[in-house]
């Protein structure tokens, strides 16, 4: 490998290194510099800049690496080279430090080659260091999800034709599957179902960007919920105090009432939700508002279920969850009667 940053060849007549010389005593150092594509190029850690500025050579196999323009602007000479493990070890001879700016794949061929050399025992290996130059912040993979969704929306024949209305049923299904995973206590399933619910949010947001009259993006969605959470938690982001969950609920209801300016406690209660949940929600709104509203009198199962749902809500029981638990027990009993396992 020959490039402007490779070690100079031995000049003719230069004396051979004697035992104990620097080349044998200090085999050098290899720094594999990794960066995250989720962080803007050039925003590197201080240890990374130190390693780059003090290195004897900086190499990168990808001439289009997004970091290169910023490194060169900072005065870092970067050679476009793809050395073998042996060549890289030789480049470190004499105690030299070589920094390799890793490509997106992380240079697996190079690291595997270095591992084989080290395992052979025939080569005095340089010091090897993996130096993350930029780190993903919590939530960074959400950026990947947005990018993947953009591409799918543009290139997938099915996804490119979807609408809010066409996807609505999937949102309901995924929400129910999430609840089922929670109630089953299945952690692996819970993780997967949360991803499916998150996909619905990102998918709908991507579709909304194309609306000709009132477009919005996933950033608008996230920005809206951030603003809402901050406003409804003055005990966290403001000067108010809350020492109990009841205090927090009071803050939440008060700020929500100020935001919505509703004339009735029934506003905002979706009538399309399951009946028991609907009855319990109306009972909760009524109780929270301090209203004394007698149950409507009537005959039939509907009124009996309404009374049960209101009673459950007053006792702090989710009637939908309670009925699902009972239904699962009923299902198990049916399977037992059939001679099947639960």
Automatic annotation (TrEMBL):
Residues 162-237 form the NTP pyrophosphohydrolase MazG-like domain. Pfam families: MazG (PF03819). Residues 7-26 have a biased composition (Basic and acidic residues). InterPro entries: 4pyrrol_Methylase_sf, MazG-like_dom, NTP-PPase_MazG-like_N, NTP_PyrPHydrolase_MazG. Residues 1-27 are annotated as: Disordered. It comes from the Bacteria. Keywords: Hydrolase. It is an enzyme of class 3 (hydrolase). GO terms for molecular function: nucleoside triphosphate diphosphatase activity. Its EC number is 3.6.1.9. PANTHER family: NUCLEOSIDE TRIPHOSPHATE PYROPHOSPHOHYDROLASE. NCBIfam families: PRK12334.1-4. This is Nucleoside triphosphate pyrophosphohydrolase. It comes from Streptomyces cinerochromogenes.
């Amino acid at each position: 490998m020959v490039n402007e940053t490779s070690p100079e060849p031995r000049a003719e007549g230069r004396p051979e290194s004697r035992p104990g010389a620097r080349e044998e005593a200090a085999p050098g150092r290899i720094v594999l510099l990794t960066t995250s594509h989720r962080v803007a190029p050039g925003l590197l850690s201080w240890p990374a800049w130190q390693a780059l500025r003090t290195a004897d050579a900086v190499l990168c196999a990808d001439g289009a690496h997004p970091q290169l323009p910023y490194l060169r602007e900072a005065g870092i000479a970067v050679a476009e080279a793809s050395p073998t493990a042996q060549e890289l070890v030789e480049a470190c001879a004499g105690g030299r430090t070589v920094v390799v700016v890793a490509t997106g794949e992380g240079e697996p061929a190079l690291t595997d080659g270095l591992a084989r050399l080290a395992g052979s025992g025939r080569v005095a290996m340089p010091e090897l260091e993996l130096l993350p130059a930029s780190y993903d912040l919590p939530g960074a993979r959400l950026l990947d999800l947005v990018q993947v969704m953009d591409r799918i929306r543009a290139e997938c024949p099915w996804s490119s034709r979807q609408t809010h209305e066409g996807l609505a049923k999937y949102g309901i299904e995924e929400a129910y599957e999430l609840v089922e995973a929670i109630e089953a206590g299945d952690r692996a399933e819970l993780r997967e179902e949360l991803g499916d619910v998150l996909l619905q949010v990102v998918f709908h947001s991507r579709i909304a960007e194309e609306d000709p009259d009132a477009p919005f993006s996933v950033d608008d969605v996230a920005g809206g919920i951030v603003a809402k959470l901050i406003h409804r938690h003055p005990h966290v982001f403001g000067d108010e105090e809350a020492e109990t969950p009841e205090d927090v609920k009071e803050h939440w209801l008060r700020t929500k009432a100020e935001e919505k300016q509703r004339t009735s406690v029934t506003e905002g209660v979706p009538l399309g939700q399951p009946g028991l949940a609907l009855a319990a929600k109306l009972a909760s709104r009524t109780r929270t508002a301090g209203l004394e509203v007698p149950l409507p009198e009537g005959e039939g199962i509907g009124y009996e279920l309404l009374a049960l749902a209101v009673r459950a809500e007053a006792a702090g029981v989710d009637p939908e969850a309670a009925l699902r638990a009972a239904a699962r027990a009923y299902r198990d009993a049916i399977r037992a009667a059939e001679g099947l396992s639960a």
